[in-house]
Design brief:
This protein has helices spanning 33-44, 57-64, 75-79, 91-96, 140-144, 149-169, 181-191, 229-239, 252-258, 271-280, 294-301, 332-344, 351-359, 363-375; strands spanning 7-12, 15-28, 50-55, 69-71, 105-110, 124-129, 175-178, 196-197, 217-220, 243-246, 263-267, 283-286, 306-309, 324-327. It has two domains: 7-201 and 363-375, Rossmann fold; 204-359, Rossmann fold, CATH 3.40.50. Helix 8 (229-239) crosses helix 12 (332-344) and helix 11 (294-301) packs across helix 13 (351-359). The protein has 14 helices and 14 strands. Strands 1, 2, 3, 4, 5, 6, 7 and 8 form an eight-stranded mixed β-sheet that branches. A six-stranded parallel β-sheet has the order 11-10-9-12-13-14, with helices on both faces. It starts with 6 loop residues before the first strand and ends with a helix. Strand 9, helix 8 (229-239) and strand 10 form a beta-alpha-beta unit.
Amino acid sequence: MRDFSTLVEVTNGCYNSVMKIALVHEMLVKLGGAERVLKSLADLYPKAPIYTLFHDKKRMKDWFGDKKIHPSNLQKWYKLGIKPKYLLSKMPKAVEKWNFGHFDVVISSSSAFAHGIKTEKNTKHICYCHSPMRYAWDFTHEYTKNYSPFMRYLIANKLNKIRQWDFMTSSRPDVLITNSKHVQKRIQKYWRRDCEVIYPPVDVKRFTPTKHHEDYFLIVSALTPFKQIDLAIRTFNKIGRKLVIIGDGAQRDYLQSIAKSNIEFLGYKEDHAVRDYIENCRAFIFAGEEDFGITPVEAMAAGKPVLAYGAGGVLESVQAGVSGEFFSHPTPESLEDGLARLLANENSYDIQKIRSIAEQFDKSVFEERMKKLITKGS
């Protein structure tokens, strides 16, 4: 007999039907853009249980503390302090063990393995793909470069098997969605599948657009190499303007060691504090290439111009000359040139126009499109 404790009511056309929905997410061990997508889905369907490979209750309590969460059988290794990267080869089998036969719809939020779940013919699998797993495809050499030749050989062998599994299981979702046209092209290249773009949810209404600023530039980011925070630091070291950096990560000590006194590191901050810093900054700096980039849109929600590296998903949100500027090369000279253009155009930016661009990515747009997709054909 089915357990109907998590049923949700969905309006479909002119009648109401009841569907049982489950959510799947790779790892609930940190808060980031992918977790914001999951939180929006969990808020949209509050009774839907969440299945995940690993669950860190302490780190996730603010966003998912009241949710019914089912970690995989790999959770026992995580509790023993083994990092997820050492369990990669076990993850495919772990996600395949879940039984979703009693659900009508399963929505997976996938950056690596969640898309590979197995569902029965009467269960609709909708996958929100943040990207095919980067370390198995275009980041393979970057991922293994710091290991010894022997370890590179072993890791490459494991990644080859994971890559084969990844391609094979890319056909499992009935519906495939992604977060940007940038990733859409990557999916077409590696998975040979077409997919729809639904941009990630941004809580635009949380911000108040204002021209006021306190003459500092702002970065909100994890402090990891591919975010290219060192590029911004080298530029601001040279020009001497105030740069505030919110976020933490493996590179923090190194980045602080190369920064001059005009650069301030604040570490991790709660959402309300981040909002205040965004609303009071002069402009937002986005130095890395990302699949979409939620923080630049949050800055635009506050009416702030964005200086971004001209690559990746940010090309789909920031409009040059209207809501900010781009710099074309990942060099301090190019970033400095972009900043000079931004300051020269500063008086011409219209905060309401900037805000209106951000509103196109509001979470209400995401929720409405997802609801239509989930109820379609149900």
